[in-house]
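A further point concerns the way the authors explain their paired sequence and structure data. An entry of this sort, consisting of the sequence and the corresponding backbone structure tokens, reads as follows:
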Amino acid sequence: MDKTRLGRYGRQICGRAWISRAALVVLLTWMSTAACVRLGPGIRGLVDLTTSGEDELRLTYLGTGGWIFQHGSDMVLAAPLFTNPSFLQTGLRPIRADTVEIDRHMAPYDVRGARAILSGHAHYDHLMDVPRVAAVHAPNARIVGSRTVANTLGSWSGVGGRVDVVDDSAGDQSSVGRWLTYGPGIRVMALRSHHAPHFDGYTLYQGSVDSPLASPPRYATEWLDGATFAFLIDFMDAVGEVAFRIYYQDAVVAPPLGFAPEVLIAQHPVDVAIFVPATFDQVDWHPEAFVQNLQPKRVLLGHWEDFFVPIDDPTRAIMLSDIGHFQDRLEHVFSGEWWRPEIGTEFRFSR
């Protein structure tokens, strides 16, 4: 396998290929000390913009890429991370899901009725905790992701057979992909996307897993991204019309990759768009182009906080991202309401 390739920002790196784990620690430590931008607290608690008697959409931020989306009894999850291995552990030592932490942080939420768990790519911070969540907390949910997601979960996880692979059915700006339906109230469409570089054109942990794994990846460098996807999530009303439309991305991407089909947005713009500000400055026109494509009514920011510290620690912004600048750029092109939530924040919106 060719583990390096040329791209818009030059040579991009697969972690296994030519960054040793020791060198990775040096890089990450430099990034955290020299270029970490800290922000004040985001919004926390309950943001309730509903009117009594109106149809309601609920979204709860679980941290990193994790969300709970709920409309009535219909529920979809986006893959959370609660384990949060440290810099040194991520760079030098094996990592594995902390089932005690996962269970502790999932305990406040009854997600037994969840029908799907979305994982836009297979890096450890988006997939490592999914087997425990799927097996224990959302036992009936399908996992929606790439062939690499399915192969990474393989036979060891106990949930690899529950993956709906979307590599050949995703949509893009000009073509409508295939809807995956999860009962009469939920449909999901994958959108072709890509993982932006982490730093100065370098993308860590790049590659694909081409056959099912019999044992879990041991190091962060072995959780390869695979094909990356964003998603449209539609919650349907009683007559089969779109009640609420959510756009979800779990990685920054250079537009028009990650765009939703224009014909669908013309029919029903996005009610809530979830954008990732981390490393947004590694690409052009993020978030501006996505606001134009999606025409969102409201915007939420996810995957903005430092996930190399315990989840109970005071929240600080993820390294190497001037999220304040991202927010300024968002406000320049978006006149609607937007929020940067703390972990555990719940939003309630009406139509």
Observations:
- Residues 4-333+346-350 form a domain with the Metallo-beta-lactamase; Chain A fold (CATH 3.60.15.10).
- The chain is about 20% helix and 25% strand.
